[in-house]
Model the fold of this input.
Amino acid sequence: SACLVGSEMCIRDSEIRTPINAIMGMNELILRESKEASTIEYAQNIASASESLLGIINDILDLSKIESGKMEVVPANYSLRTLITDCCKMIEGRASAKKLELIIDADKTTPCNLYGDDVRLHQIITNILTNAVKYTHEGSVTLRIRWKSAGDGKKILLIVSVEDTGIGISDENKEKLFGSFERFDNEKNKGIEGTGLGLAITKQLVELMDGNIGVYSTIGKGSLFYVEIPQEIAALGELGDININKRTQNTVYKEKLVVPDKRILVVDDVKVNLKVIEGLLKKTQIQIETADGGAKCIEKAYNKKYDVILLDHMMPEIDGEDALKEIKKEGCINHDTPVIVLTAYVMAGAREKYIEKGFDDYLSKPVSGEDLEDMLIKYIKKEKNDE
Ligand code: ADP
Done:
């Protein structure tokens, strides 16, 4: 796993994400359970601060992975429409909060079913969209999608650009733009949070994917960032129209399932994580049993049938993979119970790697209540299990 290169200590992803997981999870419980206006406001501040902290940490970990040559491009089949819609939904709230118009101008004939690393592409588009919104005070942000065929029938060049009517970048700064920790100070960007890592990571990701990134910008008028990335066509189908439904504002939490007759086993060596999951799933009334290590997990799995097992990966002594092997043995009453790995390992292709190892699915930390409920809905069959 990745280390913070350049620092004396070597810190693993999970060592950083585990406490953040606890902070964000516990805070989600406060937001749900508190009736006190001032407490809710404090908790909202904690939520937004921990979101930014997580963003910064993810950037630093990504950069160190890239620099140590450990960042891999993991291609898979994906839908360009889903990818673009996700990116737009992610940014839509922030754009409308600043009264910026978000315009999507996509060539309808762009092939929709592609083969490539959609996780990295998502990260690239998200980074330049986020910057456009951050550094624009009025006007609009336009996301453009174009394409060219490249050589034989299957290969295309995907061209994504983001144009804004923001503060712009001077010619002198354009040259430094893609370096690490470069931020430009001027009157206009005072008070805008950032680390100066976003574009450095974006450029490296684009290059890992054999693409190009560039910028046109006029100070005071706006900027246009473009990326050109080779992708392959996986199946027939065109992009068509992209619709983003405006997000519903601050929806109050409502549980998506109530299943008092179902039982799950949650395994994590960090006790506060067990508390977070118990708290997040409280309203579903599902029966929750916990184990604080691999050995306890195996013992419980051989004694009682569960509907789902949520299993942490990194644990001392018997880790998640070892426990999984025991659970999946014929003699175990839970050998066909879905086992979902909980992990702080968030590299592209992680899901595929875990499924290859025999897990049924994958949840990355920090897990939200919604992710957990969606996962349970997916694996808990509607009809009552006979035991
Ligand atoms: P961060 O936004 O965290 O500071 P980035 O690496 O994403 O870091 O960007 C580096 C710098 O480039 C920013 O600090 C900002 O000065 C400038 N910049 C990036 N995108 C834009 C944009 N769309 N308009 C104006 N300036 C930008």
Q: What stands out?
A: The longest strand covers residues 222-238. The radius of gyration is 23 Å.
